[in-house]
UniProtKB/TrEMBL annotation:
Keyword set, alphabetical order: Glycosidase, Hydrolase
GO biological process: carbohydrate catabolic process
Family: Belongs to the glycosyl hydrolase 1 family.
Keyword Hydrolase among record annotations: yes
Active-site residues per Swiss-Prot or TrEMBL entry: E367
Record protein name field: 6-phospho-beta-glucosidase
Length: 462
């Protein structure tokens, strides 16, 4: 029987996580420090409830049972990230054998349970020593990253075929160099663009290294948080504002990653304001030759944009903000528990844009999800009744399905996240998982959505 929303054969059902957010064991197993360990040690008050990443959901000790649970709810794929500071403490040099054993165990356990591992190399967690050298602002750090990537392909490429160079590379730029919500808390647009540019050079170098390995059915790509930009009106000023927001927040990564070059309009804008990053001879060829073969799309919310009413004079440090303002669309649907707009059709718009303008690159929804504060209040008979999450996923899936029907090359859907986990400055404020986690005992409990996704995955639709 065909269901109203039947997905293509071998559709990827799963969820996404990241090392710092789920592993814990931050000072176990020979792991070096990354910027999160350091920032928490020095400024714990910047984290919600003063909670840091030392233990989080403790996947480090619970991975076996967690992977069993993934299999139970029908996952056929699962994304995790490798902690650079765990694998290579200090960021370059010797590989830490305990870390190799840990990641080997995770990969083998996934495969034994019929779950394909999707491995991401960098999810905001720069080794501290490399940040102290200047982080992504420095080419030497980019080279260290390429070596780390190469090491990962060598160690795990015999069993892992899907690889991602970065998760949301714009976030460390915005958080660390523009808007002060990530370490190193610098506010400087020129440096921000250097970081953004160097990250893409790192991506291209990692892709280049990957192609020198013989990874069976290997595919390498990148995961971007795409926030479709919608103008307040069709008047030319609003349209321009929206186009520029799209240039900065989507195309500054999407174009070099998928097309191998930056949009000319973005280059012109940066040049006009003296913000062009330093480049090296050969960079353009490197970018052009090493584009992504697969694209992960993290989609949470759209960006509603209107023209700037008054241009700041003098211009402030936040270059992107010189050109547009955000705008709250009347009647928009909100996630009342997190404060983000919910606009399910965004999934469709993103996928059709990829189809029309980005060569219909194979893609998937690599994160989508609903953060909820104080989720325990929805508990009945020992189970969190997260009907709001079920509805959220279902409505996004309907639009994804429509895009596929119209020819989009979308291969799967991953929820953020498998279980409740620690989130950057927000710590445990917003819960996202199919499973809740008791922070004291680390006990995991399925939410209603876990049972629902199991039935969807089993029927490959709904
Ligand atoms: C994405 C990140 C994830 C995760 C998620 C939820 O941007 O890739 O790491 O944190 O957002 O966001 P938050 O925890 O801030 O609600």
């Amino acid at each position: 029987m065909t269901l109203p929303y039947q997905f293509p054969k071998d559709f990827w059902w799963g969820s996404a996580t990241s090392a710092t957010q789920i592993e814990g064991g931050a000072s176990e197993g020979g792991k070096g420090k990354n910027i999160w360990d350091h920032w928490y040690e020095t400024e714990s008050n910047r984290f919600f409830d003063n909670v840091g990443p030392e233990t989080t959901s403790d996947f480090y000790h619970h991975y076996k049972e967690d992977i069993q649970r993934m299999a139970e709810i029908g996952h056929n794929t699962f994304r995790f990230s490798i902690s650079w500071a765990r694998l290579i403490p200090g960021g370059r040099g010797e590989v830490n054998q305990e870390a190799v054993t840990f990641y080997n165990n995770v990969i083998d356990e996934l495969l034994a349970n019929g779950i394909e591992p999707f491995v991401n190399l960098f999810h905001f967690d720069m080794p501290l020593e490399l940040q102290e050298e200047g982080g992504w602002e420095k080419r030497a750090v980019v080279d260290a990253y390429a070596q780390y990537a190469d090491e990962c392909f060598r160690l795990f490429g015999d069993r892992v075929s899907k690889w991602f160079t970065f998760n949301e590379p714009i976030v460390p730029v915005e958080g660390g160099y523009l808007y002060d919500f990530h370490y190193p808390n610098i506010v400087d647009a020129k440096r921000a663009f250097q970081v953004a540019y160097n990250t893409m050079i790192g991506h291209a170098k990692a892709v280049d290294a990957f192609r020198k390995h013989d990874v069976k059915d290997g595919r390498i790509g990148i995961i971007l948080n795409l926030t479709p930009s919608y103008p307040r009106s069709r008047n030319p000023a609003d349209l321009r504002a929206s186009r520029i927001a799209d240039l900065f927040f989507n195309r500054s990564f999407l174009d070099p990653a998928v097309l191998g070059e930056y949009p000319q309009e973005l280059i012109d804008l940066l040049e006009e304001h003296g913000h062009l990053p330093q480049t090296k001879k050969g960079d353009s060829d490197l970018l052009k030759a090493n584009t992504a073969e697969i694209l992960g799309v993290n989609y949470y919310q759209p960006r509603r944009v209107k023209a700037k009413e008054n241009l700041p004079n003098p211009y402030g440090p936040f270059m992107p903000d010189w050109f547009f303002d955000m705008y709250e669309m009347p009647g928009r649907k909100m996630n009342p528990y997190r404060g983000w707009e919910i606009y399910e059709k965004g999934v469709y718009d993103i996928m059709m844009n990829l189809k029309e303008n980005y060569g219909n690159i194979p893609s998937f929804i690599s994160e989508n999800g609903m953060g909820v504060q104080n989720e325990e209040r929805f508990k009945e008979n020992d189970e969190i009744q997260d009907d709001y999450r079920i509805e959220f996923i279902r409505e996004h899936l309907k639009w994804l399905h429509k895009a596929i029907e119209e020819g989009a090359n979308a291969k799967g859907y991953h929820l953020w996240s498998f279980m409740d986990n620690w989130s950057w400055m927000n710590a445990y404020k917003n819960r996202y998982g199919f499973f809740s986690v008791d922070l004291e005992t680390k006990e995991r409990t399925a939410k209603k959505s876990a049972h629902w996704i199991k039935s969807v995955a089993e029927k490959n639709g709904f």
